[in-house]
């Protein structure tokens, strides 16, 4: 008997995923382009399970039971294509390749189609949880042909995080559905982190708290509705002291946020689908602005702002409420985007399934996900989370604090693009009639783009440069 599954690509994620698989009793073949990673894995962890090390792809493929099940865990982009190209001549019809990296969903759609021509099944599986999650239980979002998922399901569900006895792994849909959903998960992760960063900024510059004090605030918040992995680790990062300077580590980390691309892809896809995901997009832009350190340093000496000040009253609690309300909006937008993509590509992604498998293992895991799951249990067709009774009441209860926080941020010159845009989205969403009528009027004047009316059917144009008469443009 050979190995039930193979993992090629043994950097942090692949190595820990292979160990997780082996620890669950599945014999696993392991391979990496450079031999050193394979050797290191066997040397340090070979006793954790039934590993078969392979030092060439030929050896790797030969070690696998049929149909062969191969997880690729390499850098996203061209490396995935390179590995597939090398594997292809060694595989037989019915074999299954699972790409567990952060691949772009359009690449996954292409790979599913290309490999189907060779009768090879391709599963694009988003995996979240970072290094620790990969080892102890990630959240797994597999997409692709259903018949390709079924043979790998026992391994994937066994190694996934478990919440209330339910694995944080479920089939998402055909084609690129799994990688789309992972991308959107990361987009939500960007929004969540940006909101947390804005809360930290406000507590520093409007409430005058130090990093260790803010760490304690986040610890308290983690005991309420905001309880989540990101809030928990925010407290840890803020409480950490730098060995060299004795200062809070966060005060000596360079304030330039990097990004590998999944947040940007989410925003790009949202623009193409026409879904207003303002919180995620603002988070991507905020990282871009943060990266312009030299320009910001120059501007800080030239551009005036309001004098520094201190917010009064129960500001810390107000920031907590504003954070929660903004977070509801960010998740509502992310789920709306996934629904739009699912409709566009015919994937039939179930939002309730996502809320279930994101409750554990992944970076955005949170108590809050149970609330989202409940909302979709109540109404699987819910078009926007804000329309669910629980979330409607939660946001309504927080809105005075939310408005106060955004007002204070503006008055003191503390930038809160995600808090503010989430509030603007909320206010825009709850308006039956907005100012877009004027935009339509302007478009009609300068470009004869036409408009529709509120009082009768049809398409109209006003003869702006003639006698101002309205004519039918049907
Ligand atoms: N790190 C994280 O927290 C998370 C990462 N991911 C995703 O998982 C995937 C793996 O991530 P991670 O473990 O961080 O590793 P990296 O993204 O850093 O990729 C390194 C791995 O890719 C291999 N590789 C690179 N180019 C090639 C190539 N042309 N041919 C064959 N192998 C190649 C490397 O082999 P070699 O050793 O020979 O250089 C190494 O095994 C990525 O898609 C990443 O985005 C997903 C969730 C979380
Ligand atoms: O997929 C992940 C977690 O779910 C990765 O940690 C992701 O790469 C983080 O993205 P970025 O580096 O752009 O912040």
From TrEMBL:
Pfam families: 6PGD, NAD_binding_2. Pathway: Carbohydrate degradation; pentose phosphate pathway; D-ribulose 5-phosphate from D-glucose 6-phosphate (oxidative stage): step 3/3. The keyword Nucleotide-binding does not apply. Signal peptide: none annotated. Its EC number is 1.1.1.44. It catalyses: 6-phospho-D-gluconate + NADP(+) = D-ribulose 5-phosphate + CO2 + NADPH. Keywords: Gluconate utilization, NADP, Oxidoreductase, Pentose shunt. PROSITE patterns: 6PGD. Residues 178-465 form the 6-phosphogluconate dehydrogenase C-terminal domain. It comes from the Bacteria. Homodimer. NCBIfam families: gnd, PRK09287.1. Belongs to the 6-phosphogluconate dehydrogenase family. Catalyzes the oxidative decarboxylation of 6-phosphogluconate to ribulose 5-phosphate and CO(2), with concomitant reduction of NADP to NADPH. This is 6-phosphogluconate dehydrogenase, decarboxylating. The gene is gndA.
């Amino acid at each position: 008997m050979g190995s039930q599954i193979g993992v090629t690509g043994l950097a942090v994620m692949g190595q820990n995923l292979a160990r997780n698989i082996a620890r669950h009793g599945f014999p696993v073949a392991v391979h990496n382009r450079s031999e050193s990673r394979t050797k290191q894995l066997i040397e340090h962890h070979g006793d954790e399970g039934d590993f078969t090390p392979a030092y060439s792809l030929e050896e790797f493929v030969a070690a696998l039971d049929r149909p062969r099940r191969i997880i690729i865990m390499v850098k996203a982009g061209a490396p995935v294509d390179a590995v597939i190209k090398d594997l292809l001549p060694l595989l037989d019809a019915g074999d299954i390749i699972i790409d567990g990296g952060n691949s772009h969903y359009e690449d996954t759609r292409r790979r599913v189609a290309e490999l189907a021509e060779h009768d090879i099944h391709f599963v694009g599986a988003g995996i979240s949880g970072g290094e620790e999650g990969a080892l102890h239980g990630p959240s797994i979002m597999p997409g692709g042909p259903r018949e390709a998922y079924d043979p790998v399901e026992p391994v994937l569900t066994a190694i996934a995080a478990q919440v209330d006895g339910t694995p944080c792994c479920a089939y998402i849909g055909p084609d690129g559905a799994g990688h789309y959903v992972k991308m959107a998960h990361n987009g939500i992760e960007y929004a969540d982190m940006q909101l947390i960063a804005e809360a930290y900024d406000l507590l520093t510059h409007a409430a005058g708290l130090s990093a260790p004090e803010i760490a304690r605030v986040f610890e308290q918040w983690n005991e309420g509705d905001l309880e989540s992995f990101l809030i928990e680790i925010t407290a840890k990062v803020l409480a950490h002291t730098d060995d060299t300077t004795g200062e809070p580590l966060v005060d000596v980390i360079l304030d330039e946020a990097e990004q590998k691309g999944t947040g940007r892809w989410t925003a790009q896809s949202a623009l193409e689908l026409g879904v207003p995901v303002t919180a995620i997009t603002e988070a991507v832009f905020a990282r871009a602005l943060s990266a312009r350190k030299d320009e910001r340093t120059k501007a800080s000496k030239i551009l005036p702002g309001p004098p520094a000040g201190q917010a009064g009253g129960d500001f810390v609690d107000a920031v907590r409420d504003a954070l929660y309300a903004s977070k509801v909006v960010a998740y509502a937008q992310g789920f709306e985007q996934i629904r739009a993509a699912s409709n566009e590509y015919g994937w039939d992604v179930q939002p309730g399934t996502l809320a279930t498998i994101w409750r554990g293992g992944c970076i955005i895991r949170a108590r809050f996900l149970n609330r989202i799951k409940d909302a979709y249990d109540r109404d699987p067709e819910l078009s926007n989370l804000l329309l669910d009774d629980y979330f409607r009441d939660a946001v309504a209860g927080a809105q005075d604090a939310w408005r106060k926080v955004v007002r204070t941020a503006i008055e003191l010159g503390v930038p809160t693009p995600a808090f503010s845009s989430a509030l603007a989205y909320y206010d825009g969403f709850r308006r039956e009639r907005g100012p877009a009528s004027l935009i339509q009027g302007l478009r009609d004047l300068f470009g004869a783009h036409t408009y529709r009316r509120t009082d009768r059917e049809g398409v109209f144009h006003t003869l702006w440069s003639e006698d101002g008469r309205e004519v039918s443009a049907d």
